[in-house]
Amino acid sequence: MMFKSTNLYFENFFDWWPQKWAYIFSLLLAVISSLIAYYLGLPLPWMLGPLIGCGFFAAIGKPVKIGKKPRPICRALLGCTIGANFGPEILNRFSEIGVSLLFIPGFVLIIGLTTFLYLSKIMKMDRSTSIYGSIPGGLNEMVILGQEIGADPRTLVLIHATRIVVVVFLASLVILFVPNLGVEDLPEPDLFYNWKQTPIVILVSLIGWFLAVKLKIPGPTIIGPMILSAAAHIFQIVDAMPMYIIVISVQILLGSALGCLFKNITLKEMSGPILAGLVTTLIAVIPLIIIYYFLSNIGYDPLSILLAFSPGGQSEMNILALSVGADMSFISPHHMLRVFLVIIFAGILHKIIKRLF
C-alpha cells in the first residue's frame, strides 16, 4: 500500500504533464536533465542526466516517449565515432591487445555462471529468466530471446538496465575519484569542430550499418560503422570524426531511452529485479578486480583495463570512454568481443532450451 500511495502522490504532483505533446516534452525533459546534470558536475552528465530525469517521470506513470526510429541512427553515428579513434598505430598493438582479449571468454563465463546461480537459487526466479538475466550482453537481445522461451521480459529489462546503469555510474565515480587512473582533466572539445566532415561521417555510418546487416554481423547498427570507420582511419583513407555536439546528442537520446525502460513501475515491483541487478553487478566486480590486478602488474594502463572489462552496455561504455579521452583502440575490441561471444552463446543456448523445453 505504501508503495502505491507514494507513486500516486508523485503522479498527482506532476499533473501538469502535457499528454498531447509527449514526444516534444520528453525530448525537452531529456535536454534539461542533461544540462542540470552537467552544471551539477555529475559523472557522464549527457547520459545519466536524461536517464534519471526521464526514468523518474516514466516510473510515476507519465507518458515519457522517446522515438525509437532515431536510435539505430544514433548507434551508427556512435560506431563511426568509436572507429574514428583508431589509427595506423593499432597495427603495431596486436600482441598487446590480443593478450588482454584472451581474458574476455573466461570473464563472461564466470559472470554468467555466478549470476545464474544467484538468480535461480537465491532470488528463486524461473530457469529461463535466470539464464537470460545472467548473460552480460545487449539488453534488447537478451529480452527478445528470453521472452521467446517464457522468461519474464519486464524482469529482464530491469535486471539488465540496472546492470548497465550501475556499471556506468560506478565506473564514472571511480574514474573521477580514484587516483592513478590517468584522468586529470575531462576533455572539453569544440562543439562544432569537424563540421565539414559531417557528410562523410553520415556516409560511413550508413554504409557500415548496411554491410553489417547484409553480412549478419551481431549488433549491426554500432559494430558495422565501427569496423568500417576503424578500417578507413587505420589505413588513412578518410577522416570521419563527428562533431562533439553529435556525440552529446547521441548520449542524450540513448540515456533518455534507458530511462523510459522504467515506465509505470512501482517501487515494490522494482525492488526484486533491481536488487538482483545490483547484486549481479557486484558479482562481476570480483573477476574484474582479479583481471585488473594481473594486467596492471604486467604494464597495462589501469583506466583502459577498467573500461575494457566493465560489463556495461557496449554503447554506454564506449561513450564513457570517449567522454574521458580513454584509449578507444584498446577498449572497443574488448566490448566487441564480449558482445559477439554473448550473442553467439545466447543463440546456441536458445536453440538448446527450445528443444528441451
Secondary-structure map with pairings?
Elements lengths: L1 H12 L8 H19 L4 H15 L10 H14 L10 H8 L2 H19 L4 H8 L4 H10 L4 H25 L20 H17 L5 H15 L9 H16 L7 H31 L4 H8 L4 H10 L4 H29 L1
Report on the structure:
The protein has helices at residues 2-13, 22-40, 45-59, 70-83, 94-101, 104-122, 127-134, 139-148, 153-177, 198-214, 220-234, 244-259, 267-297, 302-309, 314-323, 328-356. It starts with a helix and ends with a helix. The radius of gyration is 20 Å and the shape is globular. It contains 16 helices and no strands. The protein is mainly alpha-helical and 357 residues long.
Uncertain stretches: 1-5
Number of helices: 16
The largest sheet, given as strand count, sense and whether it forms a barrel, is: none
Order of helices and strands: HHHHHHHHHHHHHHHH
Q: What class do helices, strands and sheet pairing give?
A: mainly alpha
Strand content: under 5%
> Termini, distance in Å?
38 Å
Radius of gyration: 20 Å
How confident overall, as mean pLDDT? 78
Extended strand count: 0
Broad shape: globular
**What is the percent of helical residues?**
over 70%
Can you tag this structure with a few keywords?
357 residues; 16 helices; globular
Q: Care to give the gist of this entry?
A:
The chain has helices spanning 2-13, 22-40, 45-59, 70-83, 94-101, 104-122, 127-134, 139-148, 153-177, 198-214, 220-234, 244-259, 267-297, 302-309, 314-323, 328-356. By secondary structure, the chain is mostly helical.
